[in-house]
Structure formats: C-alpha cells, structure tokens
C-alpha cells in the first residue's frame, strides 16, 4: 500500500519545508540587512573622511601664500631655498598634527610646488590628479572637494584625498591636497565578520528551533495519520487521542467525531441488516409454508382452503412490504422540503390518519394544541407524529385514552403524546430508540428511531419522559426561521 509511505514522505517534506521557511527568509534578511548596513556605514565614513580631509586642506590653504608658492621653481628643492623650506615646514607640521600620510601643493597646471610625504620633485606632475579631474575642476573654481573613490597606496591600505584652493589676490592659483588613510575599514571589516558570525549563529539557532518545531508538528500529525489509517482499515472502535496543540487538536476532535459517527453508522447498519434479516425471515417462512399448502390444496381441489392460504400469503407479503418501506424510510438520506406548517392542523391530521386503528382498539385520541406556525417538512413531521400516536394507541388498553398536546414553551414548540398503557420497563428505556428494537411480535422497531431522526433533522429532538401511571413522548421543534447550523465544512439544507 503506497498511501502510508506517501503520507510519511509528506511529513518528511513538511520538516524540510519548515526549515526552508524559517531559514531562507532569515538568511535573505540578514544578508540584505548586513550588506545594506555595511554599504551605508562605509558611505557615511567615506563622506566623513572626505569632509575632514578637505577641511584640513582648507585650513592649510589658508596659511599658504599664493604669491610665494608661485615663486617656487624646479630646483628649489635641491637648493632648499628659504621659501621652499618654509612651505615644507608648514606642510610637515600639518601632516604631523593631523596624522595624514601626505600633504602637497600644486599649481593650476597640476605641477608640484611642494610635496611632503610623496617625495615628488618641484615641477613634477602628480599622477593621482588625473583620477580626480572633476574634483580639481571644482577646486580651481574656488570650492573644496574630496576624491570620490578610494585608492590603494603602495602599503596596501586605502586612501582618500581632500582638496582646497590656494588663492592670490582672490584668484585661485593652486591647490592643497591632503591624503589620509581610510583606517576605519579595519574595524568595519572586523564588524562585518562579527556580523557574519552572529548571523551564522542565529541561523543555527533558528535551524534548531525549526527542527524542534517541525518534529513537534510532525509527531501529532503522524498520530493523526495512524488514526486515519486505522479508521480506513475498518478499526472504528479505537478512539482518536486528543492533541494539545490548538489547530491539530481541532483536527483530532473532528476526526474523533467522524470516527464516532462512522462507528454509530456501522453499528446501526449491522443492527439494520440483522433486523431486516430477522424480520424478513418470518414472513418469507410463512409465504413458503402457505404457498406449499396452497399447491397441495389446488391439487386436491380444495378451493375454499386455497383462498385462505392466498389471504395469508398476501398478509405476509404486505408485512414484508412494510418492512422494506420502513427500512428505506430510515436509511434514506434526503433534503427537507421546508414550508410553513400549521401545528394545530398537523396534529389533527395525524389523529385522522389513525381513526380506524384507534376505533378498532376502542381507544380515544384527544388533541389539544396551541396555534403556531412551524417551518418544517409537513409530510415527514406528520409521519413522525403518526408513529408516536400509533405506538400510544397500540400500547393503550381497550377503552383507554391517548392525549396529544401541542404547546408554545419559550422559543420551542413541544408536542406531547401520552398514553395510559402498561408503560415501558426501565431496562428497555435505553434501547427504545435503537433501530429494530421492539417488544411487539409484528413490529419493525423503526418507528421511534425514524421519528427521532425526523425531529433532529428539523433541529429539534424526541425523548421519553417517564411519569407515574403513563408514558409520555416529547417532540420539541425550534421556532420558524431558526434552522440547525450545518456541520463545519458543509453547506446547504440538513438532510434526513
């Protein structure tokens, strides 16, 4: 049988899906968040570094004389002229005080006038300036600027350059460049690695939680699966164990309700089959007996006796027909055809249908009913009341009385059928609503079960009310417009 293995595979895939459902969104969230935070922190720090370097360059440019800077010519660094030495001293002090790597001054053609930290001679062109052409254009226009990209120095570290203009009589004649190290990338990289390690740890914890959760879900589902398989194999007696989890507990309870309904249905079916077999056996035996006698009488020419046998055969056939009709009426599932029904007229109609039976047994049937309108299937409800009145008439002694009343009691309408017969023994009261249970020789035992089934299909109920000296059956019906709620997951009209 492949179904159980498929269910087990589904439970296994449930664990895998839960793991994926837990881990994949978390992994994506951590990856995207970590990347975004890293990029944002890097951008902020880069901007802050560029702002700081350009501020240092601006402060330095404010101390540099543009006129003296232009007097520095190639070879002054070799001759170490006083103007060159003074500018070197200024830039050295700035480098040492700010902790930057390099400070240099260039003219508008990009040629070095003084380079502290880079070692380029006076008049040389700075290669890095080609990279920062856009920034230098802004600087030569009179603004501060910083390089937009980091560059790697010979030491393998990343650097950034800040620029500020050098002026002479209000005109820009050069620029001060300050190179600083992006030392924050070391802690930032360590922070990134720490974040990655913490994310891996969080994913490990989530994986463990997902695994525990998956197993916690799979175990009760596996128990439900085992119960469903037992029910599928025909074991309707083993109850479905309750589950503590709310949602799965609801499934377990509904499965137990289904099992109980199937068990009850199976028990009823077995009783019905046994009852039908028992009830059918007697008339069939009578038909077989009298048909044999009929054949013998016909051969002997005894026509009068043959007519009597035919009558007995017809009587047994009618009883057999009634058994089949009662069985079909009880076993059939059909929707109710609701319409407004006058309760008082319904009870009088039920009495009228039993006038001949009551007269034959010399039993009076009295009806006293309050006026009410019921929303019901008139023919089925009449059949239920007829069954109750018929049982009461048959249980009453000659000269007895059956009292049928209908009363508006609160929101319900209650129909009572009371007789003064011998009553129902206490030992049999629990079984009178079982199909095919009867104490009469020619009873099918389906009248009371069918009447209760009709009452419950209308949203009401039928019960026995034992009272001293009489037997009373109460059939309660809800008011018009109030229908029983359909079972969960089902819609439409209740069925009988």
Calculate the terminal CA-CA distance, rounded to whole Å.
36 Å
The count of β-strands is 13
The percentage of residues in β strands lies in 15-25%
Mean of the pLDDT scores?
80
Q: What overall form do the CA principal axes indicate?
A: rod-shaped
Low-confidence stretches: 485-493
Largest sheet: 6 strands, antiparallel
Sequence of secondary-structure elements: HHHHEEHHEEEEHHHEHHEEHEEHEE
Estimated helix fraction:
55-70%
Q: Summary?
A:
It is a multi-pass membrane protein. Helix 7 runs parallel beside helix 8 and helix 10 crosses helix 12 (378-395). The chain has 13 helices and 13 strands.
Please describe what this structure looks like.
- Its main location: membrane.
- Residues 477-496 are annotated as: Disordered.
- It catalyses: ATP + protein L-histidine = ADP + protein N-phospho-L-histidine.
- This protein has 496 residues and is an alpha+beta fold.
- It folds into three domains: 3-186, 2-Layer Sandwich (Beta-Lactamase), CATH 3.30.450.20; 249-330, Signal transduction histidine kinase, dimerisation/phosphotransfer (DHp) domain (Helix Hairpins, Orthogonal Bundle); 333-477, Heat Shock Protein 90, CATH 3.30.565.
- It is built from 13 helices and 13 strands.
- Strand 5 (158-168) and strand 6 (171-181) form a beta hairpin.
- The longest helix has 59 residues, at 3-61.
- It starts with a helix and ends in a 19-residue tail after the last strand.
- Mean pLDDT is 80; it is low at 485-493.
């Amino acid at each position: 049988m492949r179904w159980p293995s498929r269910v087990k595979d589904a439970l296994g895939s449930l664990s895998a899906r839960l793991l994926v459902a837990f881990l994949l969104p978390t992994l994506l969230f951590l990856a995207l968040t970590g990347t975004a935070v890293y990029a944002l922190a890097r951008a902020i720090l880069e901007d802050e570094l560029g702002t700081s370097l350009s501020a240092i360059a601006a402060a330095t440019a404010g101390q540099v004389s543009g006129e003296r800077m232009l007097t520095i010519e190639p070879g002054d660094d070799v001759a170490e002229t006083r103007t060159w030495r003074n500018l070197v001293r200024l830039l050295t002090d700035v480098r040492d005080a700010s902790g930057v790597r390099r400070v240099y001054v260039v003219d508008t053609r990009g040629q070095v006038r003084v380079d502290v930290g880079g070692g380029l001679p006076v008049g040389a062109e700075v290669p890095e300036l080609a990279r920062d052409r856009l920034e230098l254009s802004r600087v030569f226009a009179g603004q501060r600027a910083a390089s937009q990209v980091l560059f790697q120095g010979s030491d393998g570290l990343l650097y950034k350059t800040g620029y500020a203009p050098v002026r002479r009589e209000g005109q820009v004649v050069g620029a001060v460049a300050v190179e600083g190290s992006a030392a924050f990338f070391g802690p930032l990289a360590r922070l990134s690695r720490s974040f990655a390690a913490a994310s891996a740890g969080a994913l490990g914890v989530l994986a463990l939680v997902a695994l525990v959760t998956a197993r916690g879900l799979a175990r009760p589902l596996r128990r439900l699966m085992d119960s469903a398989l037992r029910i599928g194999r025909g074991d309707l007696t083993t109850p479905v164990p309750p589950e503590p989890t709310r949602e799965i507990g609801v499934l377990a309870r509904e499965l137990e309700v289904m099992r109980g309904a199937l068990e009850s249905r199976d028990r009823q079916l077995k009783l019905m089959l046994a009852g039908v077999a028992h009830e059918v056996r007697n008339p069939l035996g009578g038909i077989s007996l009298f048909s044999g006698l009929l054949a013998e009488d016909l051969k002997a020419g005894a026509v009068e006796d043959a007519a009597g046998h035919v009558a007995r055969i017809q009587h047994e056939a009618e009883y057999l027909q009634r058994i089949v009709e009662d069985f079909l009426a009880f076993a059939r599932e059909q929707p109710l055809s609701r319409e407004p029904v006058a309760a008082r007229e319904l009870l009088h109609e039920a009495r009228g249908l039993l006038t001949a039976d009551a007269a034959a047994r010399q039993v009076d049937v009295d009806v006293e009913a309050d006026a009410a309108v019921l929303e019901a299937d008139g023919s089925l409800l009449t059949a239920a009341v007829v069954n109750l009145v018929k049982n009461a008439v048959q249980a009453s002694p000659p000269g007895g009385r059956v009292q049928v009343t209908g009363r508006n009691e609160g929101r319900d309408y209650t129909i009572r059928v009371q007789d003064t017969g011998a009553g129902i023994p206490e030992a049999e009261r629990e079984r009178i609503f079982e199909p095919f249970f009867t104490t009469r020789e020619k009873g099918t035992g389906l009248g009371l079960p069918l009447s209760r089934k009709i009452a419950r299909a209308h949203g009401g109920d039928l019960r026995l009310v034992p009272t001293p000296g009489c037997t009373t059956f109460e059939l309660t019906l809800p008011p018009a417009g109030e229908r029983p709620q359909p079972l969960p997951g089902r819609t439409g009209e209740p069925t009988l």
